[in-house]
Specification:
Pdz3 Domain; 45% helix; 442 residues; elongated
């Protein structure tokens, strides 16, 4: 059930993003009086074979344009008259160009049509982040709160010399404000943390290649926190043993317990066995004896006892902060590709397919996280479409810039061939990420 909820959120996000991306092309085509034959969410053919399994789930013709919902759930498209794309080849454009066709328009107008999807995705990303800031604000752990107990170091962090309980004092010699500043620094190159441990201060260098381990293992560091019981699940060992919301676990089989991240590994060692939990309830110490389930849980959700800093924004502030955060994703994408080429991170760990994307969404429907991820994907989609690969918008833009500089357009046959090459590259990349997703699942 959780997997279906995550998949549904991804499908909704992509439908919104692709639909509005294609609307960007549609809008600029209409502005310049170019005829649009089709506007489809999903493909009404077996992509990338435009003449195979041609049927739609729904369609309606309004004026010159057929609007529809395709059966092949992979993106969508607009069929712009007089343009070589994934829906047609050069042989279909052998007739004399008509005034309402794409190929008859000046290069600068065609450039705007090709940039339309990217422009809309960037605007959409900024609008989504603005809305998230305005409705939900920002939540984070301040440096002062984080350094009360320090960090919990996962094996990847321990590999470079960090330890649980370390307090991060500075990043690259400068002060910082929030925990998110630390996580952002991890993905940058040549990062150094200044650490306080047992009254001593020293530097820990983050190797550039560590990003590959972080991408593979996912977890690096988290704030170390105490906890109490938020909810007890019905019919669980926790409920049967008498655990209640508000209780604070203080020991496990006589061994003191303070932090959640240290409690759960210890609990895993007792899977299938009865344990003795010391708890604090309304100032009184009690003992309960739940049986740990086969999956190493006893059936409760915890409440982290770590103060969260919440920032709220006026609408004007939300526009500024939301736009800034949305636009920051572009240099992050550039940095990610740069680090792949530098060998800091392997492609299989850097590239994510549909399964990996679905797993980023919450297993319960969470609108805040949904919109944050949708905004991020909108900016990533804008960046990916801007890459100078034939069949992507960026490939068409390169050809149009060439035409504007050279004073003549490449032949339609050449455009058809580059489109075929680009489609092959995209399909190969798609198969690679699908295979990569499958390998990660197992």
């Amino acid at each position: 059930m959780n997997g279906l909820i995550m998949a549904a959120q991804l499908l909704l996000a992509l439908t919104i993003l692709v639909g509005l991306h294609e609307f960007g092309h549609f809008l600029f085509a209409r502005i310049f009086k170019i005829r649009v034959n089709k506007f489809y969410i999903f493909f009404d053919f077996l992509f990338p074979l435009p003449n195979v399994l041609n049927f739609s789930l729904w369609k309606k013709k309004v004026g010159d344009t057929e609007y529809g919902l395709g059966w092949f759930p992979l993106g969508g498209y607009v069929d712009i008259a007089g343009m070589v794309d994934e829906t047609k080849d050069a042989s279909q454009l052998s007739a004399e160009p008509q005034p309402w066709e794409f190929r008859s328009k000046p290069a600068w107008q065609r450039l705007f049509v090709m940039l339309g999807g990217i422009i809309v995705n960037v605007i959409l990303g900024m609008m989504i982040y603005t809305g998230v800031k305005y409705v939900w604000g920002d939540t984070d752990y301040a440096k002062e709160e984080l350094n009360k107990s320090g960090i919990f170091a996962y094996p990847v962090a321990e590999k470079i010399g960090l330890q649980t309980g370390d307090k991060i004092i500075k990043i690259n010699g400068s002060d910082y404000k929030y925990f998110s500043d630390i996580t952002a620094a991890i993905v940058k190159e040549n990062t150094t943390f200044t650490i306080e441990r047992e009254g001593k201060t020293f530097d820990v260098y983050v190797p550039n290649e560590l990003i590959d381990d972080v991408a593979k293992k996912k977890m690096f560091i988290t704030p170390l926190f105490e906890f109490d019981i938020l909810n007890v699940m019905k019919g669980s060992p926790a409920e049967e043993s008498g655990l209640r919301a508000g209780d604070k676990v203080i020991s496990l089989n006589g061994e003191p317990v303070k932090y959640y991240q240290l409690f759960t590994p210890k609990l895993r060692t007792y899977a299938g066995k009865k344990v003795e939990l010391g708890i604090l309830r309304d100032g009184t110490e009690l003992t309960i004896q739940p049986t740990v389930s086969a999956d190493s849980t006893i059936g409760f959700t915890m409440n982290p006892l770590l103060k969260v800093t919440k920032s709220e924004f006026t609408f004007g502030e939300a526009v500024v902060e939301g736009s800034k955060e949305a636009l920051s994703i572009i240099p992050q994408q550039i940095n990610g590709f740069s680090r792949i080429f530098k060998g800091h991170i392997s492609p299989q760990n850097a590239l994510t397919g549909p399964v990996g994307l679905a797993q980023m969404f919450s297993p319960q429907w969470d609108w805040e996280k949904f919109w944050i991820l949708t905004g991020m994907l909108s900016m990533a989609l804008a960046f990916m479409n801007a890459l100078p690969i034939p069949a992507l918008d960026g490939g068409h833009v390169v050809m149009l810039i060439y035409e504007m500089i050279a004073g003549k357009a490449p032949s339609e046959k050449f455009m058809e061939r580059t489109q075929q090459v680009g489609t092959f590259i995209l399909l190969a990349l798609m198969l690679y990420v699908l295979f990569n997703d499958t390998v990660k699942l197992f």
